[in-house]
Amino acid sequence: MTYVRNAWYVAGWEQDLAPEKPFALTILGDRLVIWRSVSGAVHALEDKCVHRFAPLSLGRCEGEHLRCMYHGLLFEAGGKVAEIPGQDLIPARARVRSYPVVVRHSWIWVWMGEVEAADPALIPPAVGFDDPDYILGCGFLDYQAEARLINDNLLDFSHLTYVHAASFGAGPEFAASQPKVTPLERGVRVERWLENNHGSGNRKSEQLIDGWSSYDFLLPGVLLMWSANYPAGTAKRLNYAPPPMEEAIAGLNFTSQAVTPLTDKTSRYFFSWGPHRQFGDDAMRDHMMGIAGMAFAEDKVMIEAQQRVIDTTPAQDVMPTAHDRGVTLFNRLVEKLSDAATIKRREAVG
Fold first, then answer.
1. Which of 60-69, 92-101, 189-198 has the lowest mean pLDDT?
2. Is pLDDT above 70 for 332?
3. pLDDT, tens digit, for every residue of 336-348?
4. Same domain? 176 vs 40
5. Residues 6 or more apart from 56 whose CB is under 8 A from it?
6. Cα separation values, 228 from 39, 75, 213, 217, 225, Å
7. Is 207 within 8 Å of 195 (Cβ atoms)?
8. What pLDDT, on a 0 to 100 scale, did the predictor assign at position 198?
9. Percentage of the chain with pLDDT > 70?
10. More confident residue, 90 or 1
11. pLDDT of residue 203
12. Quick check: is 308 in a domain?
């Protein structure tokens, strides 16, 4: 699988991480143990004791340390062995890899690449549960499919017309119209006006409106989208430029979604969604999450079926369509950064 290593990957929801209870997670094929220490700090290590390779995720938290519960080796948060029961000498190689971790926007972010390159400024600016403006619900789904297929799905909303006709109530306009796609330094931006319609899903309107949506799809696979309703004619009045958020008349909401590759053919898909407090409440959030549950299950059925077809047919090139601009730009960015990292590693070795 080709993914950018020098990026922050979502490992879980902060609120799901119980104090002093390690949990195991595989990201990009690396086995990790993640835990919150007695001080509240969150740490991530390679989930493999240096002694007999027992998983540290079955270990016990002791202050800021983690003890392997097979033969008792005690690990510091940085991965170094601090104690070997019955042995005074600690070999220099008695350590496991440590991964940089940051808790932000209610997500646990783990840096999977070169430690010296781990820059918290590269964490995508999601909206978390600590944001006072939004009332959010959240969840995640595990896929028997590679993450790239989920990324492709999120970069091409023309599928809404067909996959989500029942859940989001999407009409033909998503497949019949093209969004504006703009390259970003670490992703792409997708913007779309849908004029003179009655909206769909939680954005239904009795009167004609212009619907706006804009999302950034950022490395390694994070979608950040806000959308809202505006009076009919707004799109033309603004010459199809992005509208001021504060002028929305209804339907203002935000969604954060993150795709985390677990292994070559398995992924975890995290999502949150909810209304702005000015236009919704807990009941609205719960209604939206019900729609989301139905819609994301529809995606899962389609993408896992797609993976099975790919796995059982000879390799062949995809035939792109006009809707694939965002997909193409993002995948080229992934390949470019992955190739650059490979060249840098070879130069360091050579």
1. 189-198
2. yes
3. 998 776 666 655 6
4. no
5. 22, 33, 45, 46, 47, 48, 49, 66, 68, 75, 96
6. 41, 49, 7, 18, 10
7. no
8. 67
9. 94
10. 90
11. 58
12. yes
Q: In what order do the strands lie in the sheet with 65-67?
A: 60-62, 65-67, 74-75, 81-83
Q: What's the confidence (pLDDT) of residue 340?
A: 73
175 and 103 share one domain:
no
Buried b (16+ CB within 10 A) or exposed e, 9-40: bbbbbbeebeeeebbebebbebebbbbbbeee
| Domain with 95 in it | 8-122
Q: Within a 13 Å sphere around the CA of 288, how many CA atoms are in the beta-carbon half?
A: 28
- Report the length, in residues, of the chain: 350
Average pLDDT over residues 15-35: 96
How far is 35 from 44, CA to CA, in rounded Å? 7
Same domain, 98 and 146: no
Diameter over CA atoms, the chain: 78
pLDDT, tens digit (0-9, with 9 covering 90-100), for 287-325: 999 999 999 999 999 999 999 999 999 988 889 999 999
Give the predicted TM-score (pTM) of the model: 0.94
Residues 168 and 238 reside in one and the same domain: yes
In a domain, 14, yes or no: yes
The confidence score (pLDDT) of residue 42 equals: 97
As beta bridge partners, residue 213 has 192, 227
> What CATH number is given to the structural domain containing 329?
3.90.380.10
In a domain, 130, yes or no: no
